[in-house]
Structures are given as structure tokens and as C-alpha cells.
């Protein structure tokens, strides 16, 4: 199975491993990927493989598509737990992100007032005040930190800006004062001839130190589930994933494990 793109502005609803019945919103191109990271495990593929289409959906296109889908679902009596911003890259790169979030809140209140709004973000744009304001409006910010060690962070996430460090990334996360869900991918393998494993004691201890510093409201850990652009990656066993979760739980955090 090849890596794949989400083929519309609105996708699903799907039953998510982590979120329940989730209606997805893709603010990125429909036939391409735009991201500030180029993770070696990205289910959308590498950025270089997805250059075809760079046109981002506009605020009015997103509003119209979301309104249409929510009203249709409501009429059909369909259940929904969450509206999730994810898709073909990093949602906060859409220049109308803040306004789109405001529209989504308005539509959610109209059609499904009890539904949560979540954003899956790689957390690279948290210094941007408009992005930060938009994120502060949603119920769940699910923000990525895959390693607290810069070398591994760069290998796994491959930031577009090569000078971007894990320290800078962590500083951005601190802006939330703990009001976010931390999301971490655990994986091992080889990339460009370099071995990587963010489950070693050194990695997990460094990650736990940053967890304590950031104090997120909960933690989601997961491992690869679908095809990845780097073929030499291995899934972490359920036992190992639960062992990592137990370490964070011992510090008082609620941890959900997808494996
Ligand atoms: S941050 Fe998400 S969308 Fe971007 S490359 Fe990584 S996994 Fe893919």
C-alpha cells in the first residue's frame, strides 16, 4: 500500500483510533502536500513526492464545504464526536487559519453544539500570533513532539528550515502553559544509513523530562500504522508502547496508546 493524500476539503467521517467519530477538514491542497516538516513516517508521503498542487483552500471554500457536510449529516441524523483539522500537511500554514477556525466554531454551534473541535498540528507555527489565537479557540490542540533530542528530532521530522531546533520547538509548546495534548510517534529503523530509535532509555528519559516541563493535559502516543515513505521503519510492539505509557502515567499523566 502506498502513502496517500486526502482527496477533498472535508473527509470522513471516520472512526478515529484516538478521537471517536471524526469529520476531517483539510486546509491544504487536495492533490499535493504542504508541510513545514517532512517526517520520514508521514502517511501523505515525502514533500518532494507531493509537489503537484500548492493551492490552499480559501476560507469561503472551507466554510461552504463544511456547512454543506454538517447540514447533510444533521438531516440524516448521523452522529459526530469531533471536527478534526488534519489533512495533507500542516493546517496552520493556511494563511486564513484563524478565520477558518472562527467559522468552524460558528457552524459547530449551529449544527452540532456538543461536538469538539481538534487541531492536529506539528507545532512549528506557534510563535505566529494569528495561529496561536486560532489554536486557543479550539477544544483540543494535539501538538507534536517526537523526540527531545535534537539529532533524533531532525532525523524523524526533517524541518524545512534546517536551523529549526528542538529547543525552539519546545519553547513554542510552552506558550500553551500545559493546555494541549502532546502527541508522540515512537518508531525505530534506519534513514539515509543512520539508525534511529526514539524508544531507547536515553530518548524516553529526555522526553519525560520535557513532558514534566510542558505539563500537557494528556498524552497520545502511537506508532506507525500504515505505509511510510521511509521503508526501513519498524512498528513498536504493544508491550513496549505500554511500558513507555506506564512511565508517563507514573508522573500523573493520562496516556492513550495506539499501536
Ligand atoms: S507533520 Fe504531519 S503532515 Fe507534516 S510531514 Fe509530519 S506527519 Fe506529515
Briefly note the structural class of the backbone.
alpha/beta
- The string of secondary-structure elements, in order, is EEHEHEHEHHEEEHEEHE
The shape is globular
Head-to-tail CA distance between termini = 18 Å
Hetero groups in this structure are: iron/sulfur cluster
CATH class: Alpha Beta
Helix content: 25-40%
In total, the number of domains comes to 1
Instruction: State the major sheet.
Output: 8 strands, mixed
Strand order of the largest sheet: 1-2-3-4-5-6-9-11
Low-confidence stretches: none
Average predicted confidence as pLDDT: 94
Using only C-alpha atoms, the radius of gyration works out to 18 Å
Task: Quote the beta fraction.
Answer: 15-25%
Task: Offer a few descriptive terms.
259 residues, alpha/beta, TIM Barrel, 8-stranded mixed sheet, 7 helices, binds iron/sulfur cluster
What can you see in these coordinates?
This protein is α/β, with parallel strands linked by helices and 259 residues long. It has one domain (10-258): Alpha-Beta Barrel (TIM Barrel), CATH 3.20.20. The chain contains seven helices and eleven strands. The chain has helices spanning 59-75, 97-111, 129-136, 150-157, 166-174, 201-214, 238-249; strands spanning 10-16, 20-26, 82-86, 116-121, 140-144, 181-185, 188-191, 194-197, 218-222, 233-234, 255-258. Strands 1-2-3-4-5-6-9-11 form an eight-stranded mixed beta sheet. The relative contact order is 0.14. The mean pLDDT is 94. It binds iron/sulfur cluster.
Compact description:
Helices cover 32% and strands 21% of the residues. The protein is built from seven helices and eleven strands.
Amino acid at each position: 500500500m502506498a502513502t496517500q493524500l486526502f482527496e477533498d476539503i472535508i473527509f470522513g467521517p471516520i472512526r478515529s483510533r484516538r478521537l471517536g467519530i471524526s469529520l476531517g477538514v483539510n486546509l491544504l491542497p487536495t492533490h499535493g502536500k504542504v508541510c513545514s516538516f517532512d517526517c520520514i513516517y508521514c502517511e501523505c508521503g515525502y514533500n518532494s513526492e507531493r509537489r503537484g498542487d500548492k493551492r490552499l483552500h480559501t476560507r469561503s471554500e472551507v466554510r461552504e464545504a463544511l456547512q454543506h457536510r454538517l447540514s447533510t449529516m444533521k438531516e440524516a441524523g448521523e452522529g459526530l464526536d469531533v471536527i478534526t483539522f488534519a489533512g495533507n500537511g500542516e493546517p496552520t500554514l493556511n494563511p486564513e487559519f484563524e478565520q477558518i477556525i472562527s467559522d468552524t466554531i460558528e457552524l459547530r454551534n449551529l449544527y452540532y453544539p456538543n461536538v469538539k473541535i481538534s487541531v492536529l498540528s506539528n507545532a512549528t507555527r506557534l510563535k505566529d500570533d494569528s495561529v496561536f489565537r486560532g489554536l486557543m479557540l479550539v477544544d483540543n490542540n494535539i501538538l507534536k513532539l517526537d523526540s527531545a533530542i535534537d539529532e533524533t528530532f531532525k532525523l524523524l521530522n526533517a524541518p524545512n528550515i534546517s536551523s529549526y531546533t528542538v529547543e525552539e520547538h519546545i519553547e513554542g509548546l510552552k506558550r500553551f502553559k500545559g493546555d494541549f495534548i502532546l502527541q508522540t510517534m515512537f518508531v525505530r529503523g534506519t534513514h539515509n544509513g543512520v539508525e534511529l530509535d526514539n524508544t531507547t532509555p536515553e530518548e524516553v528519559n529526555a522526553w519525560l523530562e520535557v513532558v514534566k516541563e510542558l505539563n500537557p493535559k494528556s498524552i497520545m502516543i502511537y506508532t506507525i500504522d500504515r505505509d511510510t515513505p521511509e521503508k526501513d521503519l519498524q512498528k513498536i510492539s504493544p508491550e513496549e508502547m505500554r511500558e513507555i505509557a506506564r512511565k508517563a502515567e507514573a508522573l500523573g499523566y493520562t496516556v492513550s496508546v495506539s499501536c
